[in-house]
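Give me structure tokens for this 236-residue protein.
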Amino acid sequence: MLIIFGGIAGVSIATNGMELMKLMPTLYKKAMSPEFPDQPAVVRQLVGYAEKARKEGLLALEPEIASVDDVFTKKGLQLVVDGTDPDLVREVLEVEIEAMEARHRAAQKLFKDAGGYAPTIGVLGTVMGLLHVMQLLDKPQLLGPAIAGAFMATLYGVGSANVIFLPVAGRLGVLTLAEVQTRTMVIEGILAIQAGENPRVIAERLLGFLAPAEREAASQSGPNLRAVPDAEAQAA
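Here you go.
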């Protein structure tokens, strides 16, 4: 275990740096979280802002900003209230998304690298164990436990790669895609609010980001949220 997990930690630090390596427990906990962004709730929130802005003007959204929990949405609304050019609003928010994706790619790479190195280090540990076995050829009673111990290294290496490191990297990638989609939806909603579009039109646009089941759930939560059928929904 010292050879395998110590070796994996060493090569991961050499490849990705100590600072990122320290985040591995936090990233693992994040990957195990079953929570995804609540996109229907985001749609309802944005349509609510659209209705308020439609009735009272964009400046009426300023008191709402303090109560917004999501930092990304808060930044977008603040830019709109401040009268920022729509193209600049999109550019600023898209830079935020790109920076987030870069951070997430680095986190995924940490686990992918560990998963890539682990089997090889496991084989290395097995070879080291077999070298010790060669010294016990004159003691047949010790060969069984020694060989078993040698192959445990391969088990640890291959097992940790395929049960821990690579699945966690994949899970982090799925969470990243969900967050990118949610933030893209927020950008479209905020720019539509700034353009003064009808809340129903905004709802139609934002519901297009949701899966059919989520569209139906969101449409039942407010009069301006109507589920939009698509080929997938009709097939179901």
